[in-house]
Amino acid sequence: MTWMTARSILAIAAVFGLCAVGTAGCAKEEQAPQQVVKKMVPKEQPKPAEGAKPLDNQAVKPAAALYSPAGKRDPFVPFVKVEPKDVRARMEGVPPLQRYDLGELKFVGVIWGPKAAYALVEDAEGKGYTVTVGTKIGRGGGTVQKISDGEMVVKEEHRDNTGAVVVRRISLKLQSAGGN
Fold it and tell me: How far is residue 130's CA from residue 123's CA, in Å, rounded to a whole number?
């Protein structure tokens, strides 16, 4: 046999093989057996006992679920109500030195008197004030503890999250004429 005849025989065998596999599912279909449907014969209702009331044939409807929001919290309203703070209205009755943070105040000078020392403090607007030991100063409710040649010490007390009193001592250094 030559390679041409061997190749053609192989090709013909492949075609027959594919045809045999392809037509394997093409046999006559057998019909599925028909299902036998039994007719339901209605059962006779048992007769009610004498003296019993006949039941209505109406289906009993369940009671409709009603939701009454009266007296309940609205789930779409936040727990914490944040109101805008009007700083000017809140600071209306507060003395001028307690309206500023300590960082906004400048310690610009010391006046030595016969009984005590006075510190000269300037606010952010350039307005000057004199303070002595014991004067309330700053938004944190601090009091002046000590006035010396080069510094003024302010003590602030506040409560932390645990309720413990925290004492903070802040030192304001004397500002030179150039604002340093």
Answer: 11
